[in-house]
Amino acid sequence: MATSLKNLSDFSHTQIPNGERYKIAIVWAEWNINITKALADGAFKTLIENGVKEENILMHRVPGSYELPSAAQFCLNSPFEIDAVICIGVVIRGDTAHFDYICQAVTQGIKDAALMSQKPAIFGVLTVDNEQQAIDRAGGIHGNKGDEAAVSALKMLELQHKLQ
Would you call 52 exposed, middle or buried from its count of C-beta atoms within 10 A (0-12, 13-18, 19+)? Predict the structure, then answer.
């Protein structure tokens, strides 16, 4: 496994852009809330640490990961002038094909929201085989993917700003 025993939330090797000029939404799923809350909290904390003003971070909960693409599109097209959205969710493999359908729909939907709005929609959705893998990526031995999603949002916004 590529992430075996690695904490991928170490950003000492990269420069994180200052986010003071941006307004960012974090939409996060209530399903598997013990994990998604840790991811959303990580994203929020990372944004604050990198200059985003607390009043410029909008937090919205949705029922599950399947609803993330719609929520992303709502945010990116809202009159609140959201610059980017971070989508946080967890899909844990079960005994049926449900996992595959949900993962496919969420992945495509978040990508489509980004392309249609021409604004960053960040994929912070864990797609894991079991709950322990999710815990390991929500502040455990592999870091916090919410932190990583926040850094991705700031980097994509900085790129967009440079190119405009």
Answer: buried
Q: Which of 60, 98, 142, 161 is catalytic?
A: 98
Domains of the chain: 24-163 (3.40.50.960)
H-only helix segments in 9-97: 33-49, 68-76
Cα separation, 121 vs 76, in Å, equals: 8
Instruction: Give the Cβ contact number of residue 161 at 10 Å.
Output: 12
Give the span between the Cα atoms of 57 and 51, in whole angstroms: 11
Separation of CA 49 from chain center:
16
pTM of the model: 0.93
Question: Which residue's structure tokens are 């809202």?
Answer: 78
Which is nearest to 36 in space by CA: 44, 48, 28?
28
Q: What is the DSSP letter of 153?
A: H
Q: Is 98 a catalytic residue?
A: yes
pLDDT digits (tens, 9 = 90+) for 42-64: 999 999 999 999 999 999 999 99
Query: Residue 86 pairs with which residues in a beta bridge?
Result: 26, 122
Please provide the average confidence, as pLDDT, over all residues in the chain: 93
